[in-house]
Amino acid sequence: xTTIAITGVCGRMGxxxxxxxxxxxxxxxxxxxxxxxxxxxxxxxxxxxxxGRIDVPITSDLRHTPQVLIDFTAPAALRHWLKDCRDRHxxxxxxxxxxxxxxxxxIDQAATDIPIIQAPNMSLGVNLLFKVAAEVAARLxxxxxxxxxxxxxxxxxxxxxGTAMGLAQAxxxxxxxTKDSLIYDRHGDDVPRHPGQIGMHALRLGDEVGMHTxxxxxxxxxxxxxxxxxxxxxFAHGALKAxxxxxxxxxxxxxxxxxxxxx
Length: 263
Description:
Layout: E1 2-7, H1 12-24, E2 27-33, H2 45-49, E3 58-59, E4 68-71, H3 75-88, E5 91-94, H4 101-110, E6 115-118, H5 124-140, E7 145-152, H6 162-175, E8 182-184, E9 198-204, E10 210-218, E11 221-229, H7 233-246, E12 252-254, H8 256-260
Parallel strand pairs: 1-2, 1-4, 2-3, 4-5, 5-6, 6-12, 7-9, 8-9
Antiparallel strand pairs: 7-10, 10-11
């Protein structure tokens, strides 16, 4: 049985992670963590998650040392937990988005001491989409225009989503392009498309869980690759699969593609 701690347990993802972790039977929850100013500190994590008492109190610190910590919080909180896990040799599954280059550099450094999976999207289907979209882009070449569109709920803070940026990066890597090729939300009176550009578009719509489409279009045909999440459980299940796999790995930076054997 894998011992696990979860941060941000009062958020939408945190509640589902607590519920599904407890229900799986493959994990022992040793930590349920929230900000110190959270009104639910000291309450039972299972009650907050809607599954009844599980005898795991919500705390603002990591009181035990689990094998794996799952973090779906915010960049500032991630930086704290990354250092704590590195100091205590705890593996990390990182689903937090909105990370900058310095954050990724810090993850690279921490991964010399602990195993880490960092992914902009924990869905197994989305991570297969990364691979498929990269392969399609490489095969079709610049004769095909590429546009990436994502949609999320109205409360999402970062845009484009981490998943959209992950799709873009996979395509850039496979085609030898750089981020200079990315064009964000065209506007103006004279903005024709130039060869090799990749358009990035973000929609914020009600309670949309997550939708991502990559368009490949030439004169005469169009190919669309779409993934749509219908509830957050798909992300939680992916994170738990990643955590169970990661618990037995050596230090290093991994991805969901490693978990799925796509590399």
